[in-house]
Amino acid sequence: MQLQGKNFLIIGRAGMDMYPDPPGTRTEDATHFFTCLGGSSANIGVAITRLGGQASLVTRVADDAIGRYCCNQLDHYGIDRTHVHAEGGEARNSLAVVETRIEDHQSVIYRNGAADFEMTIADVEAVDYTAFDALITTGTVFAAEPSRSAAFRAFELAKEAGLQLIFDVDYRPYSWPSAAVAAEVYSRAGAMCNVIVGNDVEFGFMAGDYDQGLEKARELVGNGAAIAVYKMGEEGAVTITPEGEIRTGIFRTEALKPTGAGDSFMGGFVVGLADGLPIDEAVLQGSANAAMVVARVGCAPAMPTRAELDAFLNEHPGPTRAGEPA
Questions:
Q1: Starting at the edge strand that comes first in sequence, how are the strands of the sheet with 7-11 ordered?
Q2: Given a cut of 60, is residue 29 above it in pLDDT?
Q3: Is the pTM of this model over 0.90?
Q4: Which domains does the chain have, with CATH numbers?
């Protein structure tokens, strides 16, 4: 499967990330922090724009200084925010306090009264879907109303306009009222999409049995999806298409933190598809993007440029799987 262009519409949250400084500092010991743009959907947008694509975000942000910070950061990274609206009252932007460390890593997420969950059907109906090549959404948008209904309405409108639907499972248990609700909604969303990307735990969750995740990915493709990417951490990924399955490894680096890999993978992968790369090469581009981000401080500011990614791919010895020498 190839995308016809690199203009992506992304639905989901933008937030603020705070990192204890200097890198390696525990949060409870920190006296200084630095901030950057956060939120999975916003981070995917950054990954795309850094690699030469275009990204527009649909979401709501708090009508306060933090919401304006997020908007300023979207501007900084060249992400169109025509459809980013301010939400007043007690709604607040997501806030993540994330450590730049691997051992005993702590990420503390604040999602109470999240502004992005206030996205409405009217918000998504205001979008001209014909201006885009694909719609990307992360699973968190389905965790609460009215965002859930709005996201499903966006799916319907995007399909009517002929867009490819790309779904990053991105399961965050703390956002959902129950695991049962999440599993039902995720299965409904996944069945509507052309491309589904998730890790082994997320697909297992969708299947209702963590040992059946790979079968769930296969089932989604068997029922009409064009691609399912089943990520397995150090063991690489299995990419399933109607034509068969492709196994790829990972690019080993000296990781500073475990966060940011999923968002950077998605950005590198979809830009690869849009650039006409074969599916296995697009997956490897996503994997390389992820390897670079976990070895850098931050998430949005860690996303590599096209030149940086190309240099990494040219200079790195190549991908490996678990058990293989680095």
A1: 80-87, 54-62, 7-11, 134-138, 164-168, 195-199, 227-231, 237-241, 244-248
A2: yes
A3: yes
A4: 41-60+117-315 (3.40.1190.20)
